[in-house]
TrEMBL record:
Keyword NAD assigned: yes
Pathway the protein contributes to: Amino-acid degradation; L-valine degradation
One GO MF term attached to the UniProt entry: 3-hydroxyisobutyrate dehydrogenase activity
Keyword Oxidoreductase: yes
Domain 3-hydroxyisobutyrate dehydrogenase-like NAD-binding: 162-288
Record protein name field: 3-hydroxyisobutyrate dehydrogenase
Length: 289
């Protein structure tokens, strides 16, 4: 297939490379020259504008920083420029309302569109092992699935337009809150004189078990190897966790849903980010406790 790829950053760079590796004609665009160079080295053809990249394609994939950029790129450079009927897949993490708005604009202009945000970080993007949660009509999902499968290990239909974004921010709100809870639990266990590996061995087989503990333990030397064992470098940046928590808070407010734990996690991550920790892994918040 001829696939345009817009947004070749930390995530999009690896994803576009995997589509090229799978044999697609990948037509890439990014504002940053360095990103274009990397895309060329990975087998993509690069273009000077998004409009040129989307001309004549079967599908457009985007991986952009936020909802305002997604809306402006689709309305200015994709709709009316890509062939009518093309499949549009936005994999960026953005707010639910903008995802629905852009999908409605796309449908009105004769395109099929899905929101398909991802779980998994840069390593999973490079390895082609992302999990996609997809919102959109069933026929659009069916068309998007084989493309997404070439960049991921799981592709799940979450519901109608915006449902992929809703699933993503709900999941990440739970992740943020459970990470803070895991961190404070280990600090309390330490204060109470427990050996932390022993506590891990108990709690990981008891009712406190959760992903933040058993797959991403914030305590160095305890549980599997995690960013904690690498000075909290790599992994999932605090700034990105804060972005997702802010999206979750905005969605909760719009929906009138009480989220006291998510709200507290957002406050704690906002303070941690403001103290200059935006680039470190989000499990490093344990150092503040
Ligand atoms: P990034 O900043 O590395 O990449 C974004 C890219 O978009 C940049 O290369 C930038 O030049 C480009 N860009 C910005 N405006 C553009 C425009 N108008 N036209 C074309 N290109 C433009 O960010 P990232 O880490 O790759 O994240 C991308 C998306 O994926 C975000 O929505 C993020 O929340 C989500 N996400 C990131 C991770 C992660 O671990 N990094 C994990 C899951 C989801």
């Amino acid at each position: 297939m001829k696939i345009a790829f817009i947004g070749l950053g930390n995530m999009g760079g690896g994803m576009a490379a995997n589509l090229a590796k799978a044999g697609h004609d990948v037509r890439a665009f990014d504002l940053a020259e360095g990103a274009l160079e990397r895309a060329r080295a990975n087998g993509c053809t690069t273009f000077a504008t998004a409009r040129e990249a989307v001309a004549g394609v079967d599908a457009v994939v985007s991986m952009l920083p936020n909802g305002a950029i997604v809306k402006s790129v689709y309305s200015a450079d994709v709709l009316g420029q890509a062939p009518v009927g093309a499949l549009l897949l936005d994999c960026s993490t953005i707010d639910v309302a903008t995802a629905r708005e852009v999908a409605a604009m796309a449908e009105a202009a004769g395109y099929r569109m899905v929101d398909a945000p991802v779980s998994g970080g840069i390593a999973a993007a490079n390895a082609g092992t992302l999990t996609f949660m997809v919102g959109g009509p069933m026929d659009s999902f069916a068309a998007a699935e084989p493309i997404l499968a070439q960049m991921g290990k799981a592709v799940i239909h979450a519901g109608e337009s915006g449902a992929g974004q809703a699933a993503k921010i709900c999941n990440n709100m739970l992740l943020g809150a459970s990470m803070v809870a895991t961190c404070e639990t280990f600090k309390l266990a330490e204060r109470l004189g427990l050996d932390l590996q022993t506590f891990y061995d108990i709690s990981s087989k008891a009712s406190g078990q959760c992903w933040s503990m058993t797959s991403y333990c914030p305590v160095p030397g305890v549980g599997p190897t995690t960013p904690a064992d690498n000075g909290y470098q790599g992994g999932f940046a605090t700034a990105l966790m804060l972005k997702d928590l802010k999206l979750a808070m905005a969605a909760a407010q719009a929906a009138g849903a009480p989220v006291p734990m998510g709200h507290r996690a957002e406050e704690l991550y906002a303070a941690f980010d403001a103290a200059g920790n935006g680039g470190v892994d989000f499990s490093a918040i344990i150092k503040t406790l």
